[in-house]
Amino acid sequence: MLRRAQPAPKARPVEPTVAAVVRQQTGAAWSRARTLCTQGRVTVNGQRCLDPASRVPPGAEVIVDEHAPKLRTGVLPESAIVFLDRDVVVVDKPPGMLSIRYEPGDKDTLVDCTRTLLRRMRGRDFDSGLGVVHRLDKETSGVMVFARTAEALRNLAMRFRAHDIERVYHAIAHGMVAAQRIETHLVLDRGDGLRGSYGHFRRPRGGIPPEAKLSVTHIKPIAPLDGATLVECRLETGRQHQIRIHLSEVGHPLVGERVYIRDYSGRKIEAMRTMLHARVLGFLHPRTGQRMSFEREAPDDFRAMLESLRLTHR
After folding, report:
1. Consecutive H or E run containing 216
2. What is the pLDDT of residues 187-222, one digit of tens each?
3. Mean pLDDT across the chain, nearest whole number?
4. Residue 1 has pLDDT above 50, yes or no
5. Cα separations (Å) of 18 from 48, 262, 303?
6. DSSP label at 78?
7. Please, what is the Cα angle at 260 between 278 and 229, to 5 degrees?
8. Which of 125, 137, 226, 301 is catalytic?
9. Which residues are 229's β-sheet partners?
10. Nearest-angstrom CA–CA distance, 20 and 17
11. Residue 15 gets which letter from DSSP?
């Protein structure tokens, strides 16, 4: 009995993002196109459009004025505060914002903006001192915790060092990603100037160097996409760029990756940032010992990229 072949799944056609139209009009890089939007220098049908991932409907007029007055930046909405008590504050970090200051002149960091927001919510006399116990990359969105007392800072820092923190990320990675546990030893220079796993870029000579750090990531596919996969990444350890490096080294760099993608030969999907979102953060409360877990959905740009890559049948 002959069976009729089923058509291959295809991506659902969608309207272009505002940032994509800005790039087309100006020739700017993704980062510049995104910045023009967030600075309030792009209008759609006469209205400022601050979300670079929003879709442009057919026939809409998009105007870019690179010299228009810049909107005030570094403002967090009250909804960014996920949890607050006298010991800790949990914040939903937007993409494109530094967690902390890395160089002189860095401003509008998440620490700065959270302090400002807390004072605005609770009054000028409110103690908004914050201690940093972990960080997210500038382009990564999602939940972070800051300590509000010295004791909370010591306790949380100890738990992060002991890897006694629940951290679950969602990511969009190139290709068809399989479930796997990735264990490597990360070094600052794998042999080509990039952070990476010892023995991945060059054949290892001798034992694992003492400065290499054990790194373990658990990968679980959630949904197949057009040329990519939505995956859950559960950290057993939390090293700098760990997820980006591990997925790249197994042949599935993140969509939007610009550093750890030089060895990837497949079709590259463009994005304004690395598609990585810290979805879940769990820890024992530093004073009460109660188990706490916080979850936030990915922001609009992540969801828009996900929707543009969804597989559908005709």
Report:
1. strand 213-224
2. 999 888 899 999 998 888 888 999 999 999 999 999
3. 89
4. no
5. 11, 28, 15
6. G
7. 55
8. 137
9. 173, 224
10. 5
11. P
Phi/psi at 234 (nearest 5 deg)?
Answer: -105, 120
The dihedrals phi and psi of 246, each to the nearest 5 degrees, come to -60, -45
Q: Is 135 helix (H, G, I), strand (E, B) or coil?
A: coil
Calculate ∠ Cα 148-150-152, nearest 5°: 65
**136 is written with which tokens?**
């997210």
Structural tokens at position 307: 């929707």
Rg (Cα) of the chain, in Å, rounded? Answer: 21
> Taking each helix axis from N to C terminus, what angle separates 30-38 and 18-26, rounded to the nearest 10 degrees?
120
- Rounded Cα distance between 128 and 111, Å, is 10
Ranges assigned E (strand) in 106-200:
131-132, 141-147, 166-174, 180-187, 196-197
Whether 11 and 226 have beta carbons less than 8 Å apart is answered as: yes
Helix (H) or strand (E) segment spanning residue 302: helix 300-308
The runs of H, that is alpha helices, within 66-208 are 110-122, 150-161
108 is catalytic: no
Coil vs helix vs strand at 86 = coil
CA distances from 36 to 63, 97, 272 (A): 11, 15, 12
Taken in order 40, 45, 46, 47, the sign of the CA dihedral is negative
Residue 227 has pLDDT above 90, yes or no: yes
Following CA atoms 220, 224, 229, 235 in sequence, which dihedral angle do they give, to the nearest 10 degrees? -10
